[in-house]
Design goal:
Low-confidence stretches: none
Pfam families: Cupin_2
Radius of gyration: 14 Å
Number of strands: 10
Number of domains: 1
Organism: Haloarcula salina
Protein name: Cupin domain-containing protein
Largest sheet: 5 strands, antiparallel
GO molecular function: metal ion binding
Keywords: Metal-binding
CATH class: Mainly Beta
Order of helices and strands: EHEEEEEEEEE
Strand order of the largest sheet: 1-2-9-4-7
Shape: globular
Length: 122
């Protein structure tokens, strides 16, 4: 059996990201799912690009602020204590607009933990 009790603020941030990313998966040594905490300031986005996944399902839990998720059909506003789910082959880009009054914090889980993201263009 294995257990991990981790303070989010003790996790090193991932360099060269468009926002602050802390990998819970890496800190705990998890292999089957990706789990990250993102702090997104106004004008920042979570992904490196507007993208889609072949296999990975993603769940965004917003703990504070409002996260916007752009899709080809519309842009969703996901507020604090709300969840947004993205199925495979569903283009998306999560961000906080420059005009926002506050940052957002989101806990994002993706499974399986595969590197299957592809840039999406309309």
């Amino acid at each position: 059996m294995g257990y991990h009790h981790i303070a989010v603020e003790d996790i090193e941030t991932t360099p060269e990201r468009p926002c602050t990313r802390r990998s819970v998966s890496e800190a705990a040594g998890l292999e089957s799912l990706g789990a990250n905490v993102y702090d997104v300031a106004p004008g920042e986005q979570i992904p490196l690009a507007y993208h889609t996944h072949d296999e990975q399902e993603e769940v965004f839990y917003v703990s504070s602020g409002t996260l916007h998720v752009e899709t080809p059909e519309e842009t969703f506003e996901v507020g604090a204590e709300e969840v947004f789910v993205v199925e495979p082959d569903s283009p998306q880009r999560a961000f906080v607009p420059e005009s926002a009054d506050e940052p957002a914090r989101a806990f994002v889980v993706g499974a399986p933990a595969v590197d299957d993201a592809h840039a999406y263009e309309d």
